Amino acid sequence: MYSPIRKYHMHIMEGYLDPIWCVVWFVVMIPFVVVGVMKLRKILRENPEQKMTVALSGAFVFLLSSLKLPFR
User: Fold this and answer.
1) 38, 44, 46, 52: CA torsion to nearest 10
2) Which positions ≥6 away from 72 have C-beta within 8 Å?
3) Is residue 72 part of a domain?
4) pLDDT at 65
5) Minimal CA–CA distance to 43: which of 27, 57, 24?
6) How many domains does the chain have?
7) Fewest C-beta atoms under 10 Å: which of 1, 40, 51, 67?
8) Is 51:44 a contact under the CB 8 Å cutoff?
9) Domain presence at residue 13
């Protein structure tokens, strides 16, 4: 069914979040980044031939994040 109301979901614009929330989300993010880097280093140490796959995966994620895809 067609809805005449258009919805646009975009990134949070710069300067929109209060500084305290920026600090909170930064602190929440730190363990995930640390664990991700540790796992990535382990994978690349055990399988150095996977470097190209990891690089292409990162480029693909960056490409998807830069596109304006409609979400419902």
Assistant:
1) 160
2) 7
3) no
4) 83
5) 57
6) 1
7) 1
8) yes
9) no
Give the pLDDT of residue 37.
Answer: 96
Run means of pLDDT, 10 residues per run, the chain, 72 residues: 58 72 93 97 95 95 83 62
Q: What angle do CA 25, 63, 32 make, to 5 degrees?
A: 30
Task: Give domain status of residue 51, yes or no.
Answer: yes
Residue 23's domain comprises 19-65
Question: What pLDDT was estimated at residue 28?
Answer: 97
Q: How many residues does the chain have?
A: 72
Amino acid at 12: I
Tokens of 50: 């996977």
Report the amino acid identity of residue 61: V
Q: Which two tokens mark 27?
A: 């602190």
**Residue 50 and residue 44 in contact, taking contact as beta carbons nearer than 8 Å:** yes
Tokens of 54: 């990891």
